[in-house]
Amino acid sequence: MKRITGNRLRLSLLILFGWALIGWLAGALLALVGEPSFDLGGISIPKALLYAVIFLIGMSALFDSREVGLTAPISGRSLLLVWLPGLYAVCFLLLAAWSGLPSIALASSLLVSTTLGAASQELMFRGILFAGLRSRYSALKTTWISGIFAGIAWFPVWIWYGAWEQGVADTILGFLLSILFSAIRVRTGSLYPGILLHAVWSYCLTLLRLSGEGVFWSQLLFIALVVPLPIYGLFLLRKKALAAMPDVAVG
């Protein structure tokens, strides 16, 4: 497959449109016909998420691997930058474990779903879209713009289910966390740490919500709780830090 050079923003937006169709339409249609997932030994694998990841892996071949972050981190030391969101994830997991974890089958299905979801979103927003935006804008502007897209990505899904409050909350939360994940993408020069962190974060948070322990947090209170994370992300993207980064990390 021929790789695209030069301004790749238009291509990345077309891929975003295709990805959204898979997530919004395919997922809804599969749910309507009663076939939303594969069953693999009792583990449920969402079809729409799997198709989205396969689609994005194929589309990423149009870009240089460094542009989309499909390379190793620039150093082992750069991985230490995930300490703060990692601490959040550990706290969520401990709270969920304290109030009771789900069955092994359900926990395994959730692990697969959250991992596919994390890979899909990171490949799209911090990989392909990030590469397209970086062909025209600075790392900081790219972070803001990709964050807006990431925030509104799943809002139509919540509208479909009539859950407006959840949709607004997830839009805000998606935007805030996108700033953090973009900062990690830039500072490590790789997409892999963000995929792993996103998967762990989503898994632990989902376990917490299922445990019932998350119900005492209102949506606004939870958003307020995670505000330090995008602030930390902006700290990682300060000019002094970016000035010392090699091109592969910034681009």
Automatic annotation (TrEMBL):
Keyword Transmembrane helix among UniProt keywords: yes
Chain ranges passing through the membrane: 12-33, 48-66, 78-98, 104-123, 144-161, 167-184, 191-210, 216-237
InterPro entries: Rce1/LyrA-like_dom (IPR003675)
Molecular functions per Gene Ontology: endopeptidase activity
Domain CAAX prenyl protease 2/Lysostaphin resistance protein A-like: 107-203
One GO term of the biological process aspect: CAAX-box protein maturation
Keyword match Membrane: yes
Keywords: Membrane, Plasmid, Transmembrane, Transmembrane helix
Name of the protein in its database record: CAAX prenyl protease 2/Lysostaphin resistance protein A-like domain-containing protein
